[in-house]
Design a protein that fits this description.
Outer membrane efflux proteins (OEP); 60% helix
Length: 478
């Protein structure tokens, strides 16, 4: 689809520019050869379904179900059908319209026979084929047809955009749901540990080894952990209902086909290629370019109103006539007419129409240029966010490893009687807090990856390299 849009759009833009509507656009700012925050990678395998790179069978199943059943995708498909029907309607104007005419009439009276010689009883049967045709002298009809063709391609880009939106949103909600469930378990464990800590502090107070302040502080920390549970339960529930809607299913029912086990996908480094490739890849840019081409062509159509219009009509047929009781032989008839219509005075109506359409074409140029800049910005922001989150994840991993070592030391000290259980619980909570931060970082990394796929238009060629990093390079035109 996209490969067909590019050469046709370019040809239509050139055709439009040759007749003086707004010139073919260029990005408002020159595009660089690479993205500022892009990683350097090489080698690839084709995998146009970018969600497969996460290696999660449940996610793949959910996305494929959504692409089959989502109502937004279905709506975009109907828009394509409507646009194609509009193309057929516009293209039909280039051809003659042929129809059939048939009529029957009868006239009787009680006049005397002598009078009927001047006013006879009649019966007429008439059958003919007519043809009407507006000859496209100025090219306005052809411009309208070509504009409708570009509209149809823009509608196809809309389907790709709807599919990309649905797939990326399913991935986002899936990872949010998994993260909320994981963090819920961690916070519940933190709450249990803090309640145990509060119990031990109360026991110490009874022994005179802790104050009321220590007890209140321990209880407050336990309550603080408890307060985090309802928002996480809400987040998990809301993400599931949103997934159901994306899948075109009843959000009141539980999701089917969801595995109970889950592991976070490996960290990914995504190489986006060149910024100019976004022009061939992002559905919203393709749709904006098609709108630009269509508005240029409609400017040609508006300009054609200045020129004369030539109409050709013809009819051929046969008539069977009866006068009184006399049957006449069938009579053949034909008629051909050629008409020319040209504007002389219309109080500026045509000029106003041309100016209004030219303004729309210029608006489409600016809209396309703005869309290009926003697309590049989204990729740059996504690349930067992903890289920085990976650095944060590395630091969090190191922190958690050190805390786990501290936990092992604390367990040995507790066994040796050198510390009490309260100190061990403090270390355990620090480990759980580290796991909570890791879980949040896992989520953010996956959301960053999904956002980058979406910003790049989806569909990449991928290659797995040794270790935990998967490099994604070179776009695939879907």
């Amino acid at each position: 689809m996209h490969q067909r849009l590019i050469p046709l759009t370019a040809a239509l833009l050139l055709a439009a520019c040759s007749s003086a509507p707004p010139a073919a656009p260029k990005p408002a700012a020159a595009l660089s050869e690479s993205f500022r925050s892009a990683a350097v990678t090489s080698g690839y395998l084709v995998d146009a379904r970018w969600w497969n790179t996460f290696g999660d069978a449940t996610l793949t199943t959910l996305i494929e179900r959504a692409l089959q059943n989502n109502h937004e995708v279905a709506i975009s498909l109907q828009r394509v059908q409507a646009a194609r029907s509009g193309l057929t309607a516009q293209a039909s104007r280039l051809f003659p319209a042929v129809g059939i005419q048939a009529s029957a009439s009868r006239s009787n009276s009680d006049l005397p026979e002598a009078v009927k010689q001047g006013q006879p009883d009649t019966r007429a049967l008439r059958l003919g084929v007519d043809m009407t045709w507006e000859i496209d002298l100025a090219g306005g009809v052809r411009a309208a047809r070509d504009a409708a063709a570009v509209d149809a391609l823009g509608a196809e880009a809309g389907v790709a955009g709807a599919r990309l939106m649905v797939a990326s949103e399913v991935a986002r909600q899936y990872f949010i749901w998994r993260s909320a469930s994981e963090r819920l378990r961690i916070v519940e464990a933190l709450s249990r540990d803090q309640r145990e800590t509060a119990r031990l502090v109360e026991s110490r107070r009874r022994e005179g080894q802790a104050s009321a302040f220590d007890v209140d502080r321990a209880r407050a920390e336990a309550d603080a952990f408890d307060s985090q549970l309802p928002p996480l339960r809400t987040l998990a529930g809301v993400s599931q209902t949103r997934l159901a809607v994306l899948l075109g299913e009843n959000p009141s029912l539980p999701l089917d086909g969801v595995a109970s086990t889950f592991e976070w996908p490996a960290i990914r480094t995504i190489a986006p290629g060149q910024p100019s490739e976004l022009l061939r890849r992002r559905p919203d840019l393709l749709a904006a370019e098609s709108r630009l081409a269509a508005e240029n062509l409609r400017t040609l159509e508006a300009r054609a109103q200045w020129w004369p219009k030539l109409f050709l009509s013809a009819i051929v047929g046969q008539q069977d006539l009866q006068l009184n009781a006399l049957n006449l032989s069938p009579v053949r008839f034909s008629n051909v007419a050629l008409a020319l219509a040209a504007p002389i005075f219309n109080a500026g109506r045509i000029d106003a129409g041309v100016q209004a359409q030219s303004a729309k074409a210029t608006e489409a140029i600016h809209a396309w240029q703005q869309a290009v800049l926003v697309a590049v910005q989204e990729v740059e922001d996504s690349l930067l966010a992903q890289q920085q989150e990976q650095q944060r994840y590395i630091a969090l991993t190191s922190t958690l490893a050190n805390r786990n070592q501290s936990l092992q030391h604390a367990q040995r000290l507790l066994s040796a009687g050198q510390i009490d259980k309260l100190a061990l619980l403090d270390v355990q909570r620090s480990v759980l807090a580290g796991e909570l931060a890791i879980s949040q970082s896992h989520l953010q990394q996956q959301l960053d990856a999904v956002q980058l796929f979406k910003a790049l238009g989806g569909g990449f060629e991928t290659r797995s390299v040794p270790g935990t990093v998967v490099s994604l390079v070179q776009p695939v035109i879907q």
